[in-house]
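Here is the promised in-class demo. Please do not try to memorize the tokens; focus on the logic of going from shape to residues.
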């Protein structure tokens, strides 16, 4: 066997392992989002007016940057193409969680969690933008429970702020906010 053939085989094995890891990362994120939906006990979906398309109360979104530099969340989520791997090796995914006062009532309040994470066979390291990384074991009963609790806690703390308190708006909170009046 030549050195070239040896390198070719090593590359093929390395590339196959990378593709398997990426499939595992996407499966993890989808299960994480579904688990968060179950943890919340949220309804499945609501009709989005005026076209009455059903929109999930908890669903994956993509981050889009407009020509003017503004950041929006939404768009078509293409399976296997909604996570972005950062320069630090961590993956970045976005989860939209919609709240309303009552079922099918507007205004609706959308929270977009930025989930910055990395997987190893033993653990998942998660950061929600609040500068506190969680290290979760991937084996065991309800391994993601501490992450779900952190996500809800971030939101509860925001709801405890006074409406006129703008000082806290510059602190990292772990999610983006959007109010939908229509």
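The designed amino acids, position by position:
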């Amino acid at each position: 066997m030549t050195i070239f053939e040896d390198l070719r085989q090593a590359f093929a094995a390395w590339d196959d392992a990378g593709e398997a890891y990426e499939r595992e990362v996407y499966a993890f994120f989808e299960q994480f989002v579904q688990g968060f939906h179950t943890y919340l006990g949220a309804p499945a979906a609501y009709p989005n007016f005026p076209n009455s398309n059903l929109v999930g109360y908890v669903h994956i979104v993509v981050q889009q940057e407009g020509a003017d530099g503004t950041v929006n969340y939404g768009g078509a989520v293409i399976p296997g193409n909604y996570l972005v791997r950062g320069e630090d090796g961590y993956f970045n995914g976005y989860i939209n969680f919609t709240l309303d006062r009552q079922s099918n009532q507007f205004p609706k309040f959308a929270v977009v969690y930025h989930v910055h994470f990395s997987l190893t066979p033993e653990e998942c390291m998660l950061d929600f933008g609040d500068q506190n990384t969680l290290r979760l074991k991937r084996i065991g009963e309800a391994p993601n429970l501490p992450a779900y609790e952190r996500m809800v806690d971030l939101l509860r703390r925001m709801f405890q702020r006074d409406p006129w308190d703008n000082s806290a708006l510059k602190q990292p909170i772990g999610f983006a906010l959007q109010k939908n009046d229509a």
